[in-house]
């Protein structure tokens, strides 16, 4: 799962929770999801109709064409459509469409299979249990239906939500270096998360006076950024203030908000862009000063914006788990979404040394928008936001570049054989 990050003091996550419709009716938002009859045309196959619906949706709302350099994706529409025309089964359509969508170079844009859809629904239920009234009721009911009661889903999650492999691994590299590996940013409130939190508290308290702590995020594709934003980092930083990192989230149309699962939560933060806002972005984001073409694209194609002032440290853990030594972060190209959020945070706050490979990126924004294809009923999720940070380059805004590069060939899942861990030992003046 990808992705969550809370704005204005809350976690705005890649996935928000769902309860059932009767729990949400206090929300005043209401959207109509009636689909244009042209997408049921008998002159084309159901797959061609769904293809057109998907491409029309992306052409209107998709936010990353310029950033990813993928405007040719739209130009190739008719060539792609030829690949769809003679398909026979829904599964063939699913596989072909996801291969086509891969050309966008965006891990947040794809069709969801049935298991992914159900997993997402489960996560919506859990999140809503914590924060009711913050999801787009009409969209969630439309996408997932309400046949299973929220209590039944929650009970099912708590029975089945046991990780096949440990999500959090703790290990002493030697007497002076502690090590944490986080495989995924799992959701607070689940049994797996509570297990992680108990282990984290025990290990950090035991290790707080070691000379160095390694946080290994390699392979972490994301999930719920609350894992690091509200737990790991506040624990290891104690009462230290976080750096106020400004981020900007841009949208191409206010129409897309009806497909945004988090719209009720974000509504008060969204504003229509004025000329003065464009000028502010150009003056305050260094790489936009140099990239006139991107700034022109933003002025032409984006209509609404969120100004995110950054997170604050609530200080609820005090200094009970504060780490007093040097910090190291290990990253690779598989660090993505909420994993990238954690990498951004580490770099922005100058917490220590980053080692490994450039990340996979995309750590700015909220849960992707979602539509349901009219005929096959597959859910298309897609990036409807352009995230910007106050960095010198667009690459730094999107990815995290390591301070010390250790290529994949020199890395290992066994810490004692791993080039990144060996580099930490070297930097700390240690021997095995």
Automatic annotation (TrEMBL):
Residues 176-405 form the Tail specific protease domain. InterPro entries: ClpP/crotonase-like_dom_sf, Tail-specific_protease. It comes from the Bacteria. This is Tail specific protease domain-containing protein. Coiled coil: none annotated.
